[in-house]
Structure formats: structure tokens, C-alpha cells
Write a structure and sequence with these properties.
This protein is an alpha+beta fold. It has two domains: 18-89, 434 Repressor (Amino-terminal Domain) (Orthogonal Bundle); 106-205, Jelly Rolls, CATH 2.60.120.10. The chain is 21% helix and 28% strand. It has helices spanning 28-40, 45-52, 56-63, 71-81, 85-89, and strands at residues 109-112, 116-120, 130-137, 142-145, 153-160, 162-167, 170-175, 179-183, 188-192, 198-205. It has a six-stranded antiparallel beta sheet, with no helix packed on it. A four-stranded antiparallel beta sheet has the order 4-9-6-7, with no helix packed on it. The protein starts with 27 loop residues before the first helix and ends in a 6-residue tail after the last strand.
């Protein structure tokens, strides 16, 4: 009895982007990026599966780091996000490790008037628990501050001049090389007592859980 011959299945034509080493696994960072981009859009795994044509179970494995997507799979996921393949898989280059603030960078001037000049020495773009300033008080200059967050303390070191610090009903006088720290969650004040400029370095340290 003759055996019926079954025609061979036609090979699936892959998009050009999928033809590039589709068996090559990608770095774990891509798995994290897929999860982050999906959550930032508020999509469920089912929604991303529908948009990308990649199964929900595969997407779940990718996001958990249990499977690395091939370039072909990554290409379909990138399309679902409206990204190029490069945008999804390229590992971002690390930024500089040293943040530089030049002396003449006026963007870091917090205040500059005839009596008080405050220059920020800590990065402006970071949420932080510590802030660092260079404070210049000209003759007669006074920096009066309202209470900061609960638990905040200030640390002051005098580089030049003669100042008085008042906080919580107490006051002290400081000269070049002197330092003090005091509560800053109450009204406080730094006043120049000298005939010339007083220059100091001021650090605010915020209480934990108060910001």
C-alpha cells in the first residue's frame, strides 16, 4: 500500500531584525528593563503579550530573570513599547563618578544679595538627607531661618570672620577655625559680627523619615 506523502511545511520568513543571531541570549539588564517599562505604562503581562505576540509565560520568565530573550523576541517586545531594538537592549553607559561644581557656576547660587550669599556645594538633582553650602555674610549680614524638618541639625565651620549663632534660646560666637552644631528644626540665625566678610561652610543633616 502506497504511503501518502505530506507536503513539507513552508519555512516562516523572519523579519530582518530577527535574523541576527536569534539564538543569542541577551544580558540580564534587558529582563529588568522589560519589567520596568511594562510597569511604568501600567500594562499587565496579558496586555504586553497581546501587543508583542510573545506569550505571557515567556514574558513572565523574562521579567523574573528565568529566561533571557533572544534578539527576535526582544525585537517584538521593543516594537510593543514603540522602541527600536537598540533602545531596549543597549546597556546605558555609566555616567561620571565625580560630580564637579565649578566656582563660577552661577546655577549653584542659592541666594546672592548685598548682605548674604549662599552657594550650594551638594548636587541639586539628587534627593538627599544632607545638604552642603558655602555661606558668605557681608558686614551686617544676618541669615535668619525658619524651622526645617523635624530632627534637622546644622553643622557650621568658620573659614573667615566672626559670627554669632543662635538656636533654641542659646547663642555662641565663632571665629576662624571654630565649628558648632545645633538644632535646625527651630528658628535659628547666623549673624556676621565683624567689619569684613564672614565665610562659613554649612551642612544641613535631615532627620530620618522626616522628608
Amino acid at each position: 500500500m502506497a504511503t501518502k506523502r505530506v507536503p513539507a511545511a513552508k519555512p516562516r520568513v523572519q523579519p530582518a531584525a530577527e535574523l541576527v543571531a536569534t539564538s543569542e541570549p541577551l544580558h540580564q539588564v534587558v529582563c529588568d528593563r522589560v519589567r520596568d517599562k511594562r510597569k511604568s505604562r501600567g500594562w499587565t503581562l496579558e496586555q504586553l503579550a497581546s501587543l508583542s505576540g510573545v506569550s505571557r509565560s515567556m514574558l513572565s520568565q523574562i521579567e523574573r530573570g528565568a529566561a533571557n530573550p533572544t534578539l527576535g523576541v526582544a525585537f517584538r517586545i521593543a516594537q510593543a513599547f514603540g522602541l527600536s531594538l537598540g533602545d531596549l537592549v543597549d546597556t546605558p553607559r555609566p555616567g561620571p563618578r565625580i560630580d564637579l561644581i565649578r566656582a563660577d557656576d552661577r546655577s549653584f547660587l542659592f541666594r546672592d544679595d548685598p548682605l548674604v550669599r549662599i552657594r550650594t556645594l551638594s548636587p541639586l538633582h539628587l534627593e538627599k538627607d544632607v545638604e552642603f553650602y558655602e555661606l558668605t555674610l557681608r558686614p551686617g549680614g544676618v541669615l535668619t531661618s525658619s524651622p526645617h524638618f523635624e530632627g534637622t541639625r546644622e553643622f557650621l565651620t568658620i573659614e573667615e570672620g566672626h559670627v554669632r549663632v543662635a538656636s533654641a534660646g542659646e547663642s555662641v560666637e565663632l571665629r576662624k577655625g571654630d565649628s558648632c552644631h545645633y538644632p535646625a528644626d527651630v528658628p535659628h540665625e547666623i549673624a556676621n559680627l565683624g567689619d569684613g566678610d564672614s565665610v562659613a561652610f554649612l551642612v544641613d543633616i535631615y532627620g530620618r523619615g522626616t522628608r
